[in-house]
Amino acid sequence: MRWGDMDAYGHINNVQIVRMLEEARIAAFGPPRGAGLQGIEPPVSLFNDVPTGTLALVVDHKIRYVRTLEYRNVPAVVQVWIGAVKGASFDIHYLLQDPVTGEDCVKASSHLAFVDEATGRVQRLTQEQKDRMAPYRH
Hints:
The chain is of the alpha+beta class. The protein is built from two helices and five strands. The chain has helices at 14-29, 127-133, and strands at residues 54-65, 77-85, 89-97, 104-116, 122-123. The mean pLDDT is 89.
């Protein structure tokens, strides 16, 4: 959480919550290939191991604000796991918690698909991609 993430009500703004979910997703599954410089390997190399010309795109987000997340000078806790895996798409789920009280603040999911950059067509998930996700499914 950053000081500037607060809104006029004194809690973390909903737009910043989506940014926090994105940061958690990238930390867990890697940045898209070619984005930024080399860093540490993510726990699951999913987005950074796609072939050149393949985009990992968010199809939609579902966000439920259970309670407000008040600013604290310590990082929020975000649990991330894989939900449904379909033929050409998959879900990532998040639970964002207050870092001091442990209370649930946000329950969310992102529906993603891999898309061919040249054609704009959705690509089917490979068995290797499904296997990488399997240990993180709930």
